[in-house]
Each structure stands twice: as C-alpha cells, then as structure tokens.
Amino acid sequence: MSTANASAIAERGEPEHAATFALWILLATELLLFGPLFLGYVYVRTHFPDAAAAASRHTDMLLGTVNTAILLTSSLCMAVAAERARAQRSTQWWLSATALLGLAFLVIKGIEYQHEFAEHLFPDRGFAPADAISLDRLHGMQLFFLLYFAMTALHALHLAVGCVFCLGLTVRGGRQHALAVELTGLYWHFVDVVWIFLYPLLYLLGRAGG
Amino acid sequence: MNSDFHWLPASASSSAARFDALALTTLIMTGLVALILFVLVTWFCIRYRAGSSAGRQHPPSGNRTVEVIWIVAPLLLFFAVFGWAAYDYASLYRPNPDATPIYLVAKQWMWKAEHPNGRREVGELHVAAGQPVRMVMTSQDVIHSFFVPAFRVKQDVLPGRYTSIYFTPSKVGVYHLFCAEFCGTEHATMSGRIVVMPPAEFGRWLQQGPSVPGMAARGFALFRRFGCSGCHSAGSTVHAPDLRGLIGRRVHLQDGRELTADATYVRDSILLPHKDVVAGYAPIMPSFAGQIGEEDLLAIIEYIKESAHDERSTPRHTR
Amino acid sequence: MKQYRLLIIVWIALLLLLAATAASALLQLGAWNSVLNLGIAALKAGLVMLFFMRLRSSHVLIRLTAITAMATLAILFALSSTDYFARERYVAPYQRPQQIAPVLR
Amino acid sequence: MTSAVHRGTPASATEAIDLGYLGGKFSLWSWLGTHDHKRIAILYAIAITTFFFLGGVAAALIRIELATPQGDLVSAETYNKLFTAHGVIMVWLFLIPSIPSVLGNFLLPLMIGARDLAFPRLNLASWYVYVIGGAFTIWALIAGGVDTGWTFYTPFSTMFSNSNVVLALLGVLIVGFSSIMTGINFIVTTHTMRAPGLGWFRLPLFVWANYATSIILVLATPVLAMTLVLVGIERVFQVGLFDPALGGDPLLFQHLFWFYSHPAVYIMILPAMGVASEIIPCFARRRVFGYRFMAYAILGIGIIGFLVWGHHMFVSGQSVYAGMVFSLLSFMVAIPSAVKVFNWTATLYKGSITFSAPMLYALGFVGLFTIGGLTGLFLAALALDVHLSDTYFVVAHFHYIMVGGSVMAYFGALHFWWPKMTGRLYSEAWGRAAALIIFVGFNLTFFPQFLLGYEGMPRRYHSYPPEFQVLHLVSSCGAALLAVGYLLPLIYLGWSLFKGKPSGNNPWQATGLEWETSSPPPTHNFERPPVVTRPPYDYPEQGEPA
C-alpha cells in the first residue's frame, strides 16, 4: 500500500510507517463516528434518568460482563500476536485465538439480541417493555434502546470486520507481516476501547435499585 | 415597478430602534475597514503595477508589530460589538412582569393566537402600541419561526416545547408576520398580519371577539365521537370506570400502585391504556394512539376536568 | 519474555477492574455509581491504549492524533452542554390545555 | 528555483508538446484504473464540473422563479426541491471536494516534491466512492426529489417530508467517506513525503491550507455521517432522538449537524485562501507578507472553526447563555481571517504587479471574501442575528464566502495551474473578460440580497410580497450575467485543450516545486527528486525602478 520512502521518513523522525499513522487517523475518525451516539446518550441520561436506568435493567448484565472479559482477553491475545510478529515469530495461534474470542463475543451478543427481540425491546413501533408506566418513561426507554442497538450493532460490525482481518492474516501465514498484524492489532484494541465504555454506559445503570 | 418599494424596513418596536442603532454602528465599522482595504488594494495595484517607476527597495517580508496591531485592534472592537449585541439579545428574553402573554400555536401553514382573555385569531395578531408583549409559542408539527421584520424580532417555534420572546410595539400600523424556518411545501404562504393598535382601540377589539365554542364542549362532542361514552357512561354494559371529576383524584391501580390523576395520566391512559389499569377493571380498553390529535386530546382532558363541577354538561353520565 | 509478562499483568489488571466496576454497580452509591463506572472505564481504556496500543512508546505525532480526536469529541460535549445545562426547559404543553390556542380545523 | 521558460515562447499552436502524464497509449482503463494523482485529479475535475453545472441549472431556475413575486414558473413543491438540490449539490458535490480533490490532488505531491500521494490506491478509491455517492445523490434529487433543504432539519425531514430523504442521506453519507479518505491521504502525505529540506515553514501556503482542511475533513465528517444515519433510522423506524413527539430534541440534531457543517465552511474556504496565497505573490513578484502569521492563521481558523457552530442557532431556542458563548467565539474566528486579508493586501505593497487572468480572479476573491467576512460580523452579533438569520442577508453572506470566495478561487486556481495541468495556454483576453464578468455578475446577483435580508425577506420563499420585487429582479438579472461568466471558461478552456499555444514549463515564472518539472509533468513527477534549499515565494527582489 505505502509507497512512502521509509529511509527518508526515518531521517526526519516521522512515524516509522505511514500506514500506522494513517490507521491512527482512521481511528480518530472512528471515534468521532461514535460521537453523536455518545452525545445522544448524554441527552437521554440527563433528560430521562429514571427511564434510562429502567431500560438498562432490561439488558443482560451477566452476559455483558462475560463478553467484556472475553473482549479484554482477545485484546491480550492480539497484543501478544503483535509482539511476536515484531520478533519475527509465528502468530497464527494467537491470531486465531483472537478471532475465536471475537466470534464468541458476537455469538453471545446475538443471544442477547434474541432475548431482547423476544421481550419487544427493539425500539420500533412494537416496543413494549412491561414497566413503561408512562409515555415519558416509554419514550426514555425507547431512546435508550435505540442507542443500545445502534451502539452495540455498530460495535459488532467493527468487531466482525476485525475478525475477518484476523482470520485473513492467519490464513496468509505467520511471519513476514509484522506491519499488517500491528495495524490489525491497533484496530482491534480500538474496538475493545469502545466496548470498555459501552459496557458501563449500557449495562450497569440502576443495578442497585432505584 | 412597485410603489411599496422601500430601502429600510419599518421600525415599529422598542427593540427595532436599538437594532438599527447597532446595525448602523456595525455598518460604519465594517464599512470603514472595507473602504480602507479597497483603497489600499487599488492604490497598491496602480502604484506598484509592473513597469511603474515607484520605489521598491527592500519590500518587507513581514512585520511582527504590524501583525500584532491588526490582531489586537479588531479583537477589541469585536468585544465591544459583542457586548452591545449580547446585551440587546438578552433583553429580548429577559422576563418582564408587565408583559401581556399571548399564546401562539404554529402549524403547517398557519398561525393561531390566543389572548389571555380567550380572544382568538388566525393569521393575524393584534397588539397594543406601548404594551410589552410576551409571545409564548409552540408548534403542532415541525419547526416554524415567528418573524416580524418591523419589530426586528425572530424566534423559532418548536414542537413539544414553549419558546418565548419579549417585545414592545411602538408604532401603530400593519406589518408582516413571516415564518422564517423552512416548514414544508407552503412555507412561503405561512404569513400573517401584525396589527398594532392604539391601546384604547385594542381594548375594544379584545372584547368583541367572535364567540368560539368552549374547549370543554368540544371535548364532550369528541368524547362521544370517539366512542368513549360507549363504555365510560352509566348505561353502558361494558365495565369501565366513571371519569367524572377524575382529575385530581387518587387512583388505585391494578398492580398496587397509587397515583394522582392529572392531565398526563389521562393522556397516557388514552394512548397507552394498558400501562395504568385501575384496580377492579379489566384491561379491555383499546389504544387510541395515532387516532386522536393532540388538540382533541386537550379538549377531551378539558371536558373531563370540567365535568367535575358542572353536572349539566354531563347529563348522560349520571349513574 | 519481559514484554509478554507486562501484557499479562495489564490483562489481569483489566479483569480486576472489570470485576470492580461490575461489583460497584450493585452497590447503591447514587450519582457516584456513574462516576465510578466511568472512571474505571477511563482507566481501562487508558491501560489498553498505553500498553496494548503502545501509545506509551509511540511517535509524538501518533499521540497527538489520539489527543486531537479526544479533544474534538470533548469540544462537541462541552459546547453542547453550554446549551443543555443552561436551557430553560419549558416543556409539557399537555398539562396546561387552557393555554393552548384554539382548535380550528 | 525558477527554471525560467518565458511566457509566449514563440511556438505555433500546432506544435507538439511533451504530453507527460497525459500521454502514453490511451485506453479507458489507463484513466479509470490509474493510480496517478494527476490523472485522478482530472477525473475529479470532470465529475465536479458536471455537478457544478447541474447545481447551476437549479440555481438558474430558482432565480427565474424569483423574478416575479407570484409563484408562477414552478410549483411550491418543485421550488423546494430545486433549492434543496442546489444546496446539496453545491455543498457536498462541488464546494467541499472542489479545490482539495482537483487541485490539491494534482498539486500536493508536486508542491512537496513527492512522486505521488502516500496511498495512491486509496486516492482512486475515494474518487469512485465520490462518484457513486454523487450519482446516488443526484438520482435521489432528480427522481422524486427532496424538499427538506440541504440542512435536513428534523422533525420535518424525519416525520413530515414525503420525499426521497433517505436516499439523499445515503448519497451524502457515501460522499462523506470519500472526503475522509482524501483527508487521511493528504495528512499522511504532507507529514511523510516532503522532499529533503522542505521543512514545515518552507511549505507553500496552499499545502498548509489543504493540510488544515484535511484535518477538518477527518474529524468533522464522521459526526455528520452518524447524524445522517440517525435521521434515517428515525425516518424508517419512527423512533428517534430528534423528534419531540418521541421524546427527542430537534436542537440535538442541529447541534450535531452544525458541528460538522460549520467546520465544513472552512473546508470550503481554507483551500481558496491557499490558492490566493499562491497567486498573489506570483503576480506581485514578491514574497508573501507575514508568511508565518499566514500559516498560523490557517491553523487558527481550522481550530476555532470547531468552536462556533452554535451561531447558526441563535434564534433556534438554544439557551441564551450558549448563544453568548458561541457569539464570542464567532468573533474570534474572524481574527485569523482578517489577518489573512491584511497580509494579502500588504503583499501588494512594493510589488511589481501584473494583471493576468489568475490575478484578476485572486483580487476578486480578496474583495468578495472581505465583504463576505465583514457581513459575517453582523451575523455573529447576537441581537443583529435575531433579525437577519434565515433571511436573504444570510443567503448573500454565505454566497459571498462560498461563491465569491471559494468558486472565485477555484476558477483562479484553474487558470493559474491550467498550463501546468495541460501544457497549454488559454486566451488571456477571454480569461480576463470572464473574470470581470463573473465579478460584476456576482455582485449584481448577491449584493441586492443583503438589502432584501435587511428588509426582512425570509429565505426559501417560493413567492413573496411585491415590495421585494425590485431587488429580486436586479438579483435575477445579475444571475444571468453570472451564468454567462461561468460558461465562458468552459468554452475557452476547452478550446485551449486542443488549440491553445504550448505554455512552456513555467509561463508565470512562478516559484514552487510544482513549476520545477515540465508542464504537463511526467507520470513520475520529477526526473530527479528535488532538494529544497530556499524559503517559499522566493521571488527576486525588484530593486531599483527600471
């Protein structure tokens, strides 16, 4: 991809790879892509505090927590893979483990979605949680679930792309692609960081009652 | 071409005079800057045209002092304009206890106003010269914007929320009312007349309004039209609660909760009947969401409210 | 081996923080629940970025990129909040029907 | 640094020139599959010109309709679709990509002495994404149309409009990804591909401007993308953050929309400023005055540009306090713009000025941008904005910036670098005539709109009270002249492609690395990688009067 002249770049003390820099800019873009969703979340939390807590209690905290642990572990595998790639050692096993953990995350997420659909928590016209005791509460809960689905779906999409990258690298074999592993790793960790924030925002509200 | 043509809009409110003063000041300030720049550019272009005999030794490639001057000087000027404009802006929103409230509802594509005494008008707004006014506005559909050029006043009108703005008309006359926020196909025709009258004349006008049927009466008609009375009346075979005097009462619900019935409760019960089922009744009421407009809901709520102390308006509801 | 050990230590720290945040959510701390949760999330994100994404030893330009992105997001939040936290909320036309103007279809 | 090949080198029009990157065996794939930034720039130029004239047709119909107070030419519905099409096309399909994607693409590698952009394939991909998104948008706008205005304000766009909103949103969304790709490419290129010796403060200001623009593209566009997605979701699923009937807040949409769309104004004007900063020193034959302040001003505009979006919402119902914060910040963003205008003026001092077509465009740009900027102060001042917002005053103001500024600079840049891109000269007389016609036509079109706005004529009106007709008619006449002005370059530039005199490598005797190589440049840009040893705009001192 890069035609950047590596030696000329090193001379001026620029980042070692133009591609790494480009990927970081892409991650900056990705962060801002989530921006409106986070601002919308702030709106819902400040304007419908009780409804947000009530809606959050409908999410599956156990599965969410397990998923967070899975994702954190996948990030460890990815970091190890990147470290090994830098040392010119094989990375297949670690990349496969990363991808598998990612897939496990997606499967669990799918199970959660299934439960939520069954409980009519998808925020379309059929949205009808049992505890929406007023129109105001209904609206707040609906907006919370709009953001829940938008955020987790966008995150899952990113994770799926990451899994494809990981599996692709595994298939291509282990050694001469430290840069590719590095870039995939950065992307993977970013997706992890986004989840680290989504987890408390979506799953942990109002768990202590009230 | 057109005899109505004029260069400046009429100035018919206290804020209009202040606006024009500020606009003139800003115009002089920016005009001077523009003039100086254009004179300089023209002069340089003529004097230093290629082949002219003007001296060109040591053209400066930059000058820190000059740069700092032309950063700081405009900045100070800007702060002054900002302060003045911000003060005037705030005064459009500062609560004025003497102001008469006028309620304005915008909908695609008309303006409907209601004066405190109940006098209503559509597409027109009558106000008294010298009497401060507070517009309290909301929209039934999309965002509109209340714009009276002669008053130099504009405020967006939002659905689901009241916005307000204060002004004092100062000159008798008839002025334009425009919608300034694009609101759909007939946006350009969503205009009206602002009629500023002498106070005494305005007082007379206020008293002679056409009589509009009361809200509660209309609500009663709707109560029957939507079939509410079919169940919520004494002679009904369906077991449904009596609604007379409901507003303000404590209500015991099926799930053990207890709440005070207010307008929101009535509204929610019509739209989401299964949320708050009253103890002792089956959840058989269908939802009316999407069938009853917001205005009709208000009328029905008004009727239920009225029914508490006016037996005559609810003749069919005696058990 | 040293760098792998570091990664594993970071991972253990992340899991411990996860446990802490999940546990704290079950305690009734009022507004502090959210503060604690977000604080722990920020800490976890910081660990991932510093160690897994190697921001600790990255080129200054890359750190600048990360900071710029977060600062831009902060601008979005900060300047929007000048509106939201100072806005007069004057909602609920429904409760005051007598003020709503007439009903002419 | 100047390889002086004099203008008007005796050569007949039929003489063959070295076609450089344009040469080689022609095949469709050699263009549609090219990785050469120069060819991609030409591809962009073709697409953008098409969109420009489509948007222009909509503008012409709008002006004809407004010649009379009654809505008699087209129906209200059609009129609303026309101004929406005009806005959407001009903003997203023309102004935002115009200078960066055409001239930035062509010149950035040349100006920094690089062989190509950092990611040539990404560059080609961004063109395809742009064309697909553009075609999609045009389809939505023509087949059925969209009547929300380019601002897509909720809840009108989500619950009330019966037009192709979702398709148009999707088109704009796709085009946005093209912007992001270009932005990433430019930033990385500027950082990593500069020729040896080309430090940051030796960069041409055009490179600075494109660099700052790219940062804005990369940071602001994703916010727009997600906002448009949320509008689409709200429209399709009837659930949303922006509709008060569903618990949402329409002002939240406006905050998010303007968080992108105000910086987008700087996406449009910064590259134009970069163009003026190249042309003026060249034709004044001297260094740009206050180079460092010019560079800092570009960065300053880029940064402060993110802090002022709320000035679009002074009467929208946002808090009075927020209005004050945004108003103050808006005054601040005027400072770096003013610094630039002052410095351009000072660059003329003690120059040796010639008035070729590009210089006329650049001077026109400075004049019109100054008026646009100064009238912006009226709109930044809170109390004045209450009366002026959403009137023709705003329309006039932003056309002075967008058309008087960006489009004028785009045409100036096309004329300035035309010999570089094609190796041919256009007719100088026609070039000057077109510049003058555009300048006069523009002022005739848009100056009356300031007066209209002050008198209270709201924007987006299909019909209007008769007392506004005089000024509307003047404006419509000016628009006819302006249309002629915009068609002329299409003709004489097109003609020059085939019949123009060979220009030689550096007809303006300009400095800058792009003029070091032949015109048109070879595919690999430089025969030998250049090494930079001198500051930018190093024009020889004019010294004693001749």
Structural commentary:
The complex is a heterotetramer of chains A (about 210), B (about 325), C (about 100) and D (about 550). Chain A is mostly helical and about 210 residues long. Chain A is about 75% helix and about 0% strand. Chain A contains seven helices and no strands. In chain A, helix 2 crosses helix 3, helix 4 runs antiparallel to helix 7 and helix 6 runs antiparallel to helix 7. The longest helix of chain A is centred in the C-terminal third of the chain and has 38 residues. By secondary structure, chain B is of the alpha+beta class. In chain B, the strands form three sheets. Chain B has a five-stranded mixed beta sheet. Chain D is globular, with a radius of gyration of 23 Å. Chain D has a two-stranded antiparallel ribbon. The N terminus of chain D is likely disordered. In chain D, helix 3 packs across helix 8, helix 8 packs antiparallel against helix 11 and helix 11 runs antiparallel to helix 13. Chain D is mostly helical and about 550 residues long. Chain D has one domain: Cytochrome c oxidase-like, subunit I domain (Cytochrome C Oxidase, Chain A), CATH 1.20.210. Chains in contact: A-B, A-C, A-D, B-C, B-D, C-D. At the B-D interface, helix 1, helix 2, strand 7 and strand 9 of B face helix 3, helix 5, helix 8, helix 9 and helix 10 of D.
Brief account:
Chain A has helices at 6-11, 18-47, 49-56, 61-86, 92-118, 135-172, 178-203. Chain A is mostly helical and 210 residues long. Chain A has a single domain, classed as Up-down Bundle (Four Helix Bundle (Hemerythrin (Met), subunit A)), CATH 1.20.120.
What is the CATH-assigned architecture of chain D?
Up-down Bundle
Element order of chain D: H for helix, E for strand: HHHHHHHHHHHHHEHHE
Please indicate the percent range of residues of chain A in DSSP E strands (runs of 2 or more).
under 5%
Count of separate structural domains of chain A = 1
Q: What can be said about the biggest beta sheet of chain A? A: none
Could you give me the name of the CATH homologous superfamily of chain A?
Cytochrome c oxidase, subunit III, four-helix bundle
In the predicted model, the low-confidence regions of chain A spanning at least 5 consecutive residues are 1-15
End-to-end distance of chain A: 54 Å
> Helix count of chain A?
7
| Low-pLDDT sequence parts of chain D | 1-13
Distance between the termini of chain D: 23 Å
CATH class category name of chain A: Mainly Alpha
**Biggest β-sheet strands, sense, barrel of chain D:** 2 strands, antiparallel
* Whole-number tally of structural domains of chain D: 1
Overall pLDDT score of chain D: 92
Greatest interface (CB-CB under 8 A), with counts per chain? B-D, 90 and 97 residues
Going across the biggest sheet of chain D, name each strand in turn. 1-2
